[in-house]
Amino acid sequence: MGVTVRKLRNTPEDSEFAAKLLVEAFRGKFVHSITEAKLPIAVRNLSAFHVAQADDFRDRTFVAELDGSPVGVLGLKFHGDEDRDVSDHV
Fold first, then answer.
1. What is the pLDDT of residues 4-48, one digit of tens each?
2. 19, 26, 45, 67: most buried by Cβ count inside 10 Å?
3. pTM
4. Cα–Cα distance between 55 and 16 in angstroms, integer?
5. Rounded to whole angstroms, how far apart are CA atoms 77 and 57?
6. What whole-number distance in Å separates Cα of residue 86 and Cα of residue 33?
7. 30 with 71: CB under 8 angstroms?
8. Contact, 13 vs 68, CB < 8 A?
9. Residues in CB range of 35: below 8 A, 6 or more apart
């Protein structure tokens, strides 16, 4: 079947996958900022953040799947886009 790319869905599964992958990818930065013990809180908060986003967020956030299983996330940001307030992730 191979690799496919699709938009992030507004589901608990997609939101949790994206949150876990983000925390895993930037683990060192998260541990430095909030400690290892609080990583599950960061995942929970990021997952809730993804669910709460407007459709334009999911129009620019993609999930890569390998043989139907999620394996990656990609977020697009265009020149001139305003930053979203993400200070409440942790």
1. 999 999 999 999 999 999 999 999 999 999 999 999 999 999 999
2. 19
3. 0.83
4. 17
5. 10
6. 14
7. no
8. no
9. none
